[in-house]
Amino acid sequence: MTIRRGAAPLLVLLALTGCTSEEPAGVQLADVRRAPVTEVVEAPATIGARASATLRSPAQGTIAKLYVREGDHVSKGETLAKIRSPQAQDQLRQARQASEMATPASFAPNVRLPSFDTGGFDRQVAVHFAKARKEARKVKDSRARKQLLSAIDLAQTQHKAQTKALESLTARLNQSISGVLTGVTSGISTSMASLQAVSKSQAKAAVKAAESAVKSLTIKAPFSGVVTLGRVSGGAAPSGVEGLLSRLPGGGQQLPSVPSGGSTSAGTPVATGVPVSAGDSIATVTDVSKLTLDADVDETDVLLVREGVKAAVELDAVPGATYTAAVTAIGVTPMEGTTGGVSYPVRLTLGPGAFDDGSKAPTPKPGMSAVTRLTVRESPSAVSAPAAAIVSSGRESVVWAVRNGVAQRRVVKLGAQGDAVVEVLSGVSVGERIVVKGADSVREGQRLS
């Protein structure tokens, strides 16, 4: 709900202008004057802390030592607890062993066709050629003898050529096979090198994760703040979302709380010697050095809100006190309201508070509910009119001015809009008389004294 309050109440304005008793019944007139006008937007809000972190156990074990108590103020980096976890130590040892075993392997196949041994065959063929020549020389016909010897020589020459060609073919085949194997070997070697690199990287990552888990067994404050001790499951293995999150590298030491649907007080209080499971909440550190306000501003008012806008804040927990605040951020994500409309989140920083008698108000705690009144527009010396003098006519705002005793319809442009008084930017001037009561019943040209 939006409440707009003006700085000058209607009764004061009427007293200053001096209403007459000569107007028709139900109609009152007053002079337009200068007066301060303030427009205020009211929105519900909740007190928040500057930062909050829940610190969780990275592994199953027991609380070896607890260094803090509930409500203690701690500094950034201060040790809160130490957890003894043989399981985490064993995982680190296994990871290091796996990393050392990730040695590179070689792959160099060697395939070669064997050379043909034709020595024995060549000797037998030579014997046959010698016998053939011997028999040819026995031929008495010189011409026939000569032809036979020539044929034997030709056959022997062809045999030698075939043997040489076979040797050349074998050499070329070996060369081709060697080239093919070289390409295949290169591709396989590259693939194996990539696989080895991936395996080595995974082994290193596993070692780092295990080292991080062991290091996280010493739980330290991420920033300065107030400690709230948690409750643990007593060593039972976590299940569901918390169980999965706790297996991440680092143990999910600062993971947000996951509602389980049960009572928040369930579990065993954190203490030295208590068994814990991975993901159990050990402590929550809340930085209350600066308090914030998260206000829900209605869509009809949010466009009036700017960074730096000042606000007055009232808390249900501190009746009679008013705190200062200033807008630091305006959200753009709408939230559905209970009445069907939407609102937008507005973040403010909370300042000091004081009671009506001037005494200092206590410092609120995160989570307390509040009402924020934001001063969205302020005009210290405005041409002002009572809010009752404004008549809405479609998209226009109208006032009835009185000139020479006759009512005149004037379209006006409004500025800051308080609850009792509004700023008039154009349409009327200071000193003019206007209808300030009963404006809905006035008609154009009506006689008003």
TrEMBL record:
Biased composition (Polar residues): 254-267
Residues in Multidrug resistance protein MdtA-like barrel-sandwich hybrid domain copies: 53-236
InterPro entries, A to Z: MdtA-like_BSH, YknX-like_C
Annotated YknX-like C-terminal permuted SH3-like domain residues: 385-447
Top-rank taxon, per record: Bacteria
Region (Disordered): 246-269
Protein name: Efflux RND transporter periplasmic adaptor subunit
Organism: Nonomuraea insulae
